[in-house]
Amino acid sequence: MKLDIIGDVHGCMNELHHLFITLGYHKKHGIYVHSDSRIPVFLGDITDRGPDSIELIKLVYEMVIVHRQAKYIPGNHCNKLYRYFLGNNVQQRHGLETTVAEYKALSPSEQTEIRKKFIKLYEDAPLYLVLPKADCIVAHAGIKESYIGRTDKEVKTFVLYGDITGKFHQDGRPVRRDWAQHYNGKRWVVYGHTPVKEPRIVGKTINIDTGCVFGNALTAFRLPEEQVVSVPSEQPLQEEKFHYSSE
Question: Are 163 and 207 in contact (CB under 8 A)?
Fold first, then answer.
């Protein structure tokens, strides 16, 4: 199994196109395919903050649901958009407002189509992926070794939000424990969620959210090659979004 695991895209369609081309994919029937039968894996947070969230939903739906040429797991932003589409009273901030603005600009029939597609995409997705043939686990914000195989509420919170403590920094960010320092598994855990300037490898864990929507880069991790491939962001750099402490 040959994988290209793609970090948090957050509506950055141009950068995703650039990344796919760099990885050797080509467009066929409106989706990206690879002549070597490689499988793209989206590790969540495909929407919010960036300019093209609706187009990302359409593309990922086509690749994952229609053509079954890719895999997808949800991130915390995906969870929030899903709850919004269900009609829940969700606060439209931290990026959701950009996706909602795009959505509301659509015609009623287009809105219905997008809502149905994203709900289907989300509900069909596993909480995280265990891929024995690639000897890896893909989880949006990571996963403890002892959680692998579980999908209860405690694990769901960890996978979507990270190892949160319940406390907050002065700027509103949740305080998180550095779970990767304690992971001793032999399988790769590939995750994103927390923006880093460079892919962060600790043991057999790698964070590939290189903050594309914050102006840095969009990154893929290739297996079995264990190769990192990044393309530069077209968004303005927001230096304050990158944090270098273990939190």
Answer: no
Whole-number Cα distances in Å, 188 to 57, 179, 180, 191: 27, 14, 11, 10
User: What is the rounded CA–CA span in Å between residue 44 and residue 40?
Assistant: 12
Q: Is 127 helix (H, G, I), strand (E, B) or coil?
A: coil
For 207-223, the pLDDT digits (tens) are: 999 999 999 999 999 99
Q: How many Å apart are CA 119 and CA 142, to the nearest integer?
A: 23
CA–CA separation, 61 and 148 (whole Å): 26
Rounded CA gap, 78 and 71, in Å? 15
From the CA atom positions of the chain, what is the Rg in Å?
Answer: 17
Longest dimension (CA), the chain: 50
In terms of Cβ atoms closer than 10 Å to its own Cβ (0-12, 13-18, 19+), residue 159 is: buried
pTM of the model: 0.94
**73-89, pLDDT tens digit by residue?**
999 999 999 999 999 98
Q: Which amino acid is at 232?
A: P
6: which 2 tokens? 């793609």
> 123-128, long-range: CB within 8 Å, 24+ apart, which pairs?
123/82, 124/64, 124/65, 125/64, 125/72, 125/73, 125/74, 126/73, 127/73, 127/74, 127/151, 127/155, 127/156, 127/159, 128/73, 128/159
Check residue 168 and report its DSSP letter: E
